[in-house]
Structure to design on (295 residues):
């Protein structure tokens, strides 16, 4: 898919761009299958350990995790990309359709940022300890990097693995506000890092329901948030980030890697084992590091 000039202009005007029907089952199914298999394995372990009364094996992807977590939420914190470190996730980060879209913004030397997430947003009230890391307050993605990344362009790619709707907590954005640059944020326990109340723009808000297969591209200064999941299903999504190779990611203690290069094709990381090992080592070494800059 090649982006048109009007689409690029719309991104620069609004700070985001929605593209429908980008990804097909052949793109998304391996990711979903990897997570299904992991959850199945862990459910069997929990059952064997007497921590779960049944497997919920007949339930579909958007329900099973909720049923399991209603009884035991041990699996829930294990699912993010860097913790599960699956081969399909690594492959997906180099998805050619996504990289073609990214190339239209940053050119052919592309690095994948370590700020990358799989988010199974559980039905409200189900999350361990009552606070949900996937109910996010208004923030800009530039607000969750160190200052070193400030001068550089980073493109957020957000995509649903199951349909995202207003009911299950899809994203909301403030169009055009990216032109104001980085707003003041603050970090608060239970709330995460969010735009400070006095810095929050009073402007139009757009809610972005996105069907599976679609992709949202977002500028790092576009304020966005997402609300509670008021359904009985899981809102599964991914958000990943790309930037020109050689620019700092704002998370120097976590691994980035080259996903596309016209000039130095041999520098593209295609070795899954190295990627997984680099993440494991970085997580072990970076415990206790202050991830965000705000007090
Ligand atoms: O998926 C969400 O609810 C929040 C995602 C987010 O903040 C992001 O993709 O940058
Ligand atoms: Fe974000």
């Amino acid at each position: 898919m090649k982006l048109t000039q009007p689409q690029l202009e719309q991104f620069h005007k609004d700070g985001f761009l929605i593209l429908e029907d980008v990804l097909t089952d052949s793109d998304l199914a391996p990711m979903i299958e990897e997570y299904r298999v992991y959850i199945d394995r862990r459910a069997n372990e929990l059952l064997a350990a007497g921590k779960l009364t049944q497997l919920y094996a007949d339930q579909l992807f958007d329900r099973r995790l909720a049923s399991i977590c209603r009884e035991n939420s041990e699996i829930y914190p294990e699912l993010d990309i860097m913790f599960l470190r699956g081969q399909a996730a690594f492959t997906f980060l180099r998805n050619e359709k996504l990289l073609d879209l990214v190339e239209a913004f940053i050119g052919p030397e592309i690095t994948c940022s370590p700020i990358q997430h799989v988010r199974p947003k559980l039905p409200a009230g189900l999350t361990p300890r009552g606070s949900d890391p996937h109910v996010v307050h208004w923030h800009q993605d530039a607000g969750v990097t160190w200052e070193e990344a400030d001068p550089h362009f980073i493109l957020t790619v957000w995509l649903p693995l199951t349909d995202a709707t207003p009911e299950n907590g899809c994203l909301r954005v403030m169009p055009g506000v990216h032109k104001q640059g980085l707003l003041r944020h603050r970090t608060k326990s239970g709330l995460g890092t969010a735009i400070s109340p006095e810095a929050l723009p009073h402007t139009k808000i757009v809610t972005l329901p996105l069907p599976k297969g679609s992709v949202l591209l977002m500028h790092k200064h576009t304020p966005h948030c997402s609300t509670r999941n008021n359904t009985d299903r899981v809102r599964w999504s991914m958000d990943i980030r790309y930037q020109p190779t050689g620019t700092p990611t704002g998370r120097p203690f976590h691994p980035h890697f080259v996903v596309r290069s016209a000039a130095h094709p041999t520098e593209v990381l295609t070795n899954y084992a190295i990627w997984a090992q680099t993440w494991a080592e970085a997580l072990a070494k970076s415990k206790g590091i202050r991830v965000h800059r705000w007090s």
